Amino acid sequence: MHWIALSASAYLAFAIALFPADVAWRWLAADDLRLAGVQGTVWSGRAALASAGPLGFRDLRWQVRPWSLLIARPAGRVETGLGDGFLQTEVRIGGNDVVLSRLTATCSLSALAPALPIAGFRGQVSLQLTELVLHDGWPTTARGQLRLGQLTVPSLVGGDPIALGNFNVILSGTDGLQGAFQDQSGPMEVRGAAGLTAAGEYEISGLVRARPEADAALRRGIELLTGTPDADGMRAFSLTGTL
Question: Residues 111-130, buried b or exposed e (16+ Cβ, 10 A)?
Answer without folding.
Answer: bbbeeeeeeebbbbbebebe
